[in-house]
Every structure is written in C-alpha cells, then in structure tokens.
Amino acid sequence: MNRLIRNTLIITILAALAFPLSAGGTAEAAGDNTLSILVYITGVTDGSPPYETMVEGAEEFAAAHEEVTLKVYEAGFNQAQWEEQLTSLVATGEYDLVIGTNPSFPEICERVGKKFPSQKFIITDAYWEGNDQIRTYLFNQYEQSLFLGYLAGLVTTSDMSGANEDLKIGFITAQEFPLLNKHMVPGFLSGAQMVNPDITLDYRVIGNWYDANKTAELAQSMISNGVDVFAVIAGGAAQGLFKVASEKGVYVVHHNTNEYDMIPPYVVGSGSMEQKKITLEALEEALAGKVEWGKASVVGLKEGYIRFIDEDPLYTEAVPSAIREEFAQFMQELEAGDIPYTLPEL
Questions:
Q1: DSSP strand E in 118-261: where?
Q2: Cβ neighbours around 213 below 10 Å, total
Q3: Per-residue pLDDT tens over the stretch 200-241
Q4: Which residue spans within 120-235 are E strands per DSSP?
Q5: Cis peptide bond prior to 320, omega within 30° of 0
C-alpha cells in the first residue's frame, strides 16, 4: 500500500469516528463551541405572549453569538402531531438543544429523548425533575394568579363604573392542564377571597386556543351571570373576551404580558412572566456548558421572574388611587414573604 493510499485511509477512518452514531446533540458530542438551537413552539407564536417572548429572547441571543444557529418551528394547534413533528426534527441530528415552553412539553420530550439519548431539552413554564436530558423552569403561576386575583377582588368590591354588587369574578381558559387547574385557577380565587371571602368564581373552558367567537359567547354568558372582572389564558382566542369586555364595560386582569393598551381603560392589571429573561439566561448557560440537567426550579417574585406591571400610565388611568395604594401594599407584603400561602403540588 503506497503512502498516499495509506494516508487517505487513515483520514477516512478518523473522520468516520468523529461523527456521532445517533442523531441529536451533535455539537456537544463533538466537543466544539457552537450551539444549534431549535425553538419548538407547541402552537403558533403570534398572539401567544409566552411564545412571542421566548422567540424574541432566542433570536436576540442568536444575533449576539455568531457561533449560534437558530430555527423556530411552529407545531400548530393539533396536539396529536406535536410528538411526531418533534421526533422528525430531532432525528435529523441538526440541533444540540431544543427549547420550548408548555407545561405538557416535558412528557413529549422525555419520550422523544428515549429514542435520541444525546438530545437535550430546556423547557420553561414546566416542572420535570430527574431526567438528565431535560432542564425545566416553572414560573410561579400560583403567585401571579394570587396577586391578580387580589386585584380582581379589589375591583369587584369597588364602586368603579363597571363593577356590580354580585361579587363574581371570571376565568376563561382555552384548555385544562395541571398547572392551570392546580395553580392558576385556585390562586386567582384565593387572592380574590383575601379581599372578601364571599367572592365566587365563574370558570369556563373554550376547548381550543383560537376560537375568539366561542370566547365572546362565554364572556357574554358570564357577564349575564354577574361577572365583572375576568382573567383569561387562551392565546389568540382571548381576543373574543377583549371585544366583549370593551363593549360591556367590564374589566380584565391579564397574566404574563403588558396588555393595558388592548382595551383601555378596561385592562386593570397586567402581570409579567419574564420569559425573555429566562430564555436568554438558559441559553447562555447552554452555550457555556453549565446547564444543570435533570434539575427543576420554581421561579417567582423573589427571584425576579414574576412581577406586576405598575409603571404603565394606562394602569394609573384605569385604576383609582385608593385601589392602587392598597394593591401596592399587598404586593410589598407578598414579595417580602409576609402573605402566607402553600404552593400546591402539580
């Protein structure tokens, strides 16, 4: 065998050994300093604040790091197809990291991860512990719902023009899931009942994340039933509530993003889930190789990932000063740990 043939054979063997034998996590397996990210949206981005802010954070991160590549994939509303679509994408071996935000996403990732043991997943708004392919961060939505419920209680018991004497608040959701049922809805009612224990909750489910007409019908029915303050977790379908609330002059408190300008002056409170912040920080850890795989964290007011947006002038215009002052005192006590509550298990 001459020297040229021998050298060519050696190079071919070394190149073959350098490639991973299974798809998923290629950059980490190869030991380089690049990072290929798949942002997997379980739905569509537009109209969903958690998805919009995650994508915004990931795109900002990729723009700041030339060694990072990014793909955003929208899986659509057919949940039966989410796992199959993710499997197909991971099977290409193109992505070192999949990042998403959905309380039900860890179960899908665990099943997909069994087929591709080198693939890594970071998931926010979810809690999943003990799988060394998955890192999760659960926003303390009980805490956010608690303070939004307290504000709803102050409004429904007030003499504001849209408030009535029925002591009823409402919660409309697209679909039921454990985080909603065990943290958000109970937290919302508990917060309101800290104002007045006689406050009751009218709770309705749309059945999907896009049917604004169905949401409007539910809102009309709830208003007829005495509801004067609403919370909503419904993605694009929430537009139906906003339309009816502005027409009927009732109020909305909103989770996760600033929506004061949606139907002023009827959005009387907006919480913030710092999705962009946690996305940027998680991706920095991934690029640096410092992710604590298998760990699950709960993050809230104390950690700076949940807050109430009180600096918007539309909030000041919508809510009387006496209510704002009482609510600000509650928020101070809650953040200081002086408002006792037990975070329910999921």
A1: 120-124, 134-139, 168-173, 200-205, 227-233, 251-254
A2: 13
A3: 999 999 999 889 999 999 999 999 999 999 999 998 899 999
A4: 120-124, 134-139, 168-173, 200-205, 227-233
A5: no
